[in-house]
Amino acid sequence: MLTFLWKFTVFYVFYTSGFLSNYVTFEDEANIPAIAKYFNTKGRYEEVNPYLREDILAVNRSILQPPLDECQQIHLTAIIRHGTRYPTTKNIKEMQQLYNIVLHNASGEQSWLHELQTQWRMWYTEDMDGRLVQKGVDELKHLAVRLSKLFPSLISEEKLRGGFIKFITSSKHRCVNSTLSLKAGLTELWDIKDVEFDHAVNDALMRFFDKCTRFVEEVDNNPSAVTEVEKFKQGPEMRRVQQKIADILNVPYSSISYDVAEAAFYLCAYEFAIRSVKSPWCELFDDDDAKVIEYASDLREFWKRGYGHDINSKASCILFHDVFSRMDKTATQNKLGQQVTEAVTVQVGHADTLLPLLTLLGFFNDSEPLTSTNYAAQAHRSFRTSHMLPYAANLLLVLSDCGGGDLRLQPLLNEKPVTFPGLTDRSSMPLYRDVLEHYKDLLQGCDFETECQLFKQPAEV
After folding, report:
1. Once rounded to an integer, what is the mean pLDDT over residues 46-65?
2. What are the Cα distances from residue 53, in Å, to 24, 25, 189, 215, 286?
3. What is the distance between the alpha carbons of residues 359 and 315, in angstroms, rounded to a whole number?
4. How many angstroms separate the first and last alpha carbons of the chain?
5. Cβ 345 vs Cβ 78: under 8 Å
6. Is the pLDDT of residue 322 over 80?
7. Active-site hit among 82, 142, 309, 387
8. What is the pLDDT of residues 267-304, one digit of tens each?
9. How far apart are CA 215 and CA 415, in angstroms?
10. Which residue in 131, 210, 260, 300 has the most C-beta neighbors within 10 A?
11. Could you report the per-residue pLDDT of 228-243, keeping only the tens digit for each?
């Protein structure tokens, strides 16, 4: 473990030293797997924002145009998922199982299968276990630069040096290293070498899902909470995908379980996300297959982190209140003509941090829940983690003073404007007081300690 961390540190210093010399990238579309848009939480940020394939630092400031000319941005909260990472130990074990099947049992004349059996090697090792990769360092540094271009009055050298930009992170190594990458993106942009900037580790905010007893017991560790997921894995759509893979590899159907099929899909996704390679593993899937596996993943996220159970989103109450209390403090300071003490708050966490909060706020809530039997009916669902939660996904909340005592709040997801669901004002920049009114029940209630208390059923007499 220490050796790996030392290697990462050496790489980090070496890699960051050359960052600013490689601003612009261009990617050949032919090297992108056709199924890349279905990679759910294993997808690249560039699939959500394809324009970044040509210029990784491209921004469109017109999306921030306020309704009034005199609007001035006074605060930004950025809740950011960590960058691209290695697979977890569990995924790597499943990949190894698949690789052994392909290496020792599969047969066929396909050139890509021959390549897998003779040239490709299983290079993922269990000690990688979800650590940030080179691509993850890169994309967080690029994100930092893009945000400084989007919000130049808030994310500036003066604000950074003055201590007006705060960094908070989950304790997980991939999040801490993503936070370091964000800071490095800014310090290199402004060539700051005389000072280092702190960050705070706060798992109560960024890993609330681990701290919520009711969520852990009733959902996370409770198989019955995800019965719809298990039913879909055993259903006809998934069975067809597994049998197709077995037929292609010329192995018994019993060899290709759901986990093995998912491992093949993830190998395609990780090889692309980490190495920018269109891997032979991708040849096992066509568009229809990828949609099925994407749905299985979305179903799991829906029932474990999304709308499936009320406690999934209520677990994020602590983060919800933290965000709004910070904006309220900013509003008060601004009203009194005082210096805003926290111009920018950057909070780095996980997909499991962002999704419950997005759910609590009401985003991507389809009219019908995702179930094991409505795959076809959900073909055009809004709850698509491939769109919502790629690596480096981010929710941005921009508070602006528009004069006359009017504050406005603009939400952006992955650098694109979104509208608060259910709000009467359907503009992308509603009045802050209207947002507070819309969420007043959550602001007055939604107490983390109360919501997360595990209520025991009384014993029968």
Report:
1. 92
2. 9, 6, 21, 39, 23
3. 11
4. 53
5. yes
6. yes
7. 82
8. 999 999 999 999 999 999 999 999 999 999 999 999 99
9. 30
10. 300
11. 999 999 999 999 999 9
- Alpha-carbon torsion angle 247, 248, 249, 250, nearest 10: 40
Write out pLDDT tens, residues 71-120: 899 999 999 999 999 999 999 999 999 999 999 999 999 999 999 999 99
Query: What's the helix, strand, coil split of the chain in %, to 5?
Result: 55, 10, 40
**Could you give the strand order of the β-sheet that contains 416-417, starting from the edge strand earlier in sequence?**
200-201, 165-169, 344-349, 72-81, 394-401, 407-413, 416-417
Confidence of residue 1 (pLDDT cuts 50, 70, 90): very low
Instruction: Identify any residues that bridge with 417 across adjacent strands, giving them in sequence order.
Output: 412
| Chain Cα centroid distance, residue 446 | 24
- Which 3 state secondary structure label does DSSP give 81? strand
Query: Can you tell me the distance from the alpha carbon of 378 to that of 369, in angstroms, rounded to the nearest whole number?
Result: 9
Q: Does 104 qualify as catalytic in the annotation? A: no
- Tell me which H or E stretch contains 410: strand 407-413
Helix (H, G, I), strand (E, B) or coil at 455: coil
